[in-house]
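Sample entry (212 residues):
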Amino acid sequence: MIAEKTIGKWTEELASKEPVPGGGGASALGGALGAALGQMVANLTVGKKRYADVEETMQQSLIHLRTLQEELLALADQDAEVFAPLAKAYGMPTESPEQKTEKTRVMEERLLAASLVPMQMMEKASDVLNILEELERKGSRMAVSDVGVAVQFARAALLGAVMNVYINTKSMNNREKARELNEKARQLIAEGVKKADEVYQRVQERLIGQER
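Predicted structure, serialized as tokens:
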């Protein structure tokens, strides 16, 4: 499990020629890092008299971001788990009509599974962005730069995970389902990237303003 490995060990595995971990796992890890940074911002805000009016909001943010961090790390593992059966399916025999039919059925099943995991990553990354947007407005001013960094991690998770959606839906025979998944992915990208860029821009403006 990714949560039990050192960063050095996991990145060595990522750098190897082995098929997993890959882009999906890296995307999930990026989202988890964004969630962790968000927690740091909330932790630097709670208990401060200056931010007493947002104490409850910060406490809730901590709970939600911790859950999202754990879910994204779990999805990194799931991404590897769904890839192995898909890779195996590509090698199924097709010598008889029955074998071809069975391979088509299995491939479709496993392509869908391999599409749904990165879709969940996208949904979780979007949830992280929603909380980061609030942290930018209400969190400690001393940690606003960390919100900006967190936003970029969550944004990258969103744009990275969608690659694994598209590469699998591209091979699906059920084009109606493929279009449904692609449309959902496009909507998450449009909304998430817009939000991430707006928050990041506000953070930049606040930091530049502090220099004047």
